[in-house]
Amino acid sequence: MDPSRYDIEGLDIAWCPGCGNFSILRALKLALSRLDILPRDLVIVSGIGQAAKTPHYLRTHVFNGLHGRALPPATAIKTVNPGLTVIVESGDGDMYGEGGNHLLHAIRRNPDITCLVHDNMVYGLTKGQASPTSRPGFKTPVQVGGVFEEPFNPVALAVAMGASFVARALATDIERTADVIVRAVRHRGFSLVDILQPCVSFNKLNTLDWFREHTRELPGGYDPGDRMAAMRTALEEDLALGVIFQREGRPAFEEQTGIYGLDPTPLPFRAEDRGPGLTAVMRNKR
Ligand SMILES: Cc1ncc(C[n+]2csc(CCOP(=O)(O)OP(=O)(O)O)c2C)c(N)n1
Ligand code: SF4
Ligand SMILES: [Mg+2]
User: Fold this and answer.
1) CA of 159 to the centre of ligand 1 (A)
2) How would DSSP label each residue in 124-165?
């Protein structure tokens, strides 16, 4: 399928020229076209932030909710209509700060959704405060003496919790990012992809050059099924790029809820849920 299938004509994109989000948007469209997912079969869910604007720039279904709260509605959407492909677009502040608790429980529940985190190590939308992944010494108008906390390590957290798919990509490497997104969407279960993204306006420390110097590709023969190797990789100083951990065979949340135990038809399409039966139930509740 042609990636332009997801284009919206005459868009006014609010990102700064040179922002790494443009590369992620291109990689996402490339991945979706390679996966042959029709816009009508896709829902992109997001919270608040520059990253969370991504679904506004694609022609598909969108649910844009509260800051840090993308994962609960995404889980609900997948649970009631498992035929849809559900992708979450989030930022490092949105997903690892405000939404951190939801991330823990999404990993635990393992719904079949793909969570793409645009990790620019800063709060971009609110003009440059430190985020959970900001590096020590990073000075901002709020952290005037520089960040002194340990940066949050999303890959180590996800591997420690037994997430079923954990990967990292560099936004500007569009081909490789698209490849990782394809693998994440194909994976059955919760997929976390931390995408390193330069913020050219508010992060002058973690520039594209910094990311190039501080990242490395996984070695040939690397086995993403080896959890201890994945944890060692996650704890290395250099940030490894690629699929770091993958665990097949873990049942997805929506398969275990029992909703589809007897009837695989998605809830929105079941006649009894739309017909007089539901109407009668609703009437009794009033
Ligand atoms: C509950 C709540 N707290 C704070 C804010 C203000 N706020 C909006 S976006 C944002 C940070 C976004 O950072 P990040 O998720 O890293 O996205 P980026 O803009 O960097 O892509 C904050 C703190 C808000 N909208 N809602
Ligand atoms: S502030 Fe940073 S993250 Fe936001 S659009 Fe500009 S460059 Fe991109
Ligand atoms: Mg950010």
Assistant:
1) 26
2) TTTTSB--TTPPTT---SSSTT---SPPP-HHHHHHHTT-SE
Q: Is the CB of 201 under 6 A from ligand 2?
A: yes
Are 88 and 118 in contact, with CB atoms under 8 Å apart?
no
| Cβ of 227 below 6 Å from ligand 1 | no
Q: Looking at this protein, which amino acid is placed at residue 231?
A: M
Q: What is the enclosing helix (H) or strand (E) of 5? A: none
pLDDT tens by residue, 127-167: 999 999 999 999 999 999 999 999 999 999 999 999 999 99
The pTM (predicted TM-score) of the whole model is 0.94
Going by alpha carbons, the residue nearest to atom 5 of ligand 1 is 67
Q: Whose CA is nearest to atom 4 of ligand 1?
A: 67
* CB 84, CB 77: distance < 8 Å: yes
Does ligand 1 lie within 6 Å of residue 195's CB atom? Answer: no
Q: Two tokens at 142?
A: 């709020």
Q: How far apart are CA 278 and CA 40, in angstroms?
A: 26
Report whether residue 233 contacts ligand 2, using a CB cutoff of 6 Å. no
What are the chain's domains? 3-258 (3.40.50.970)
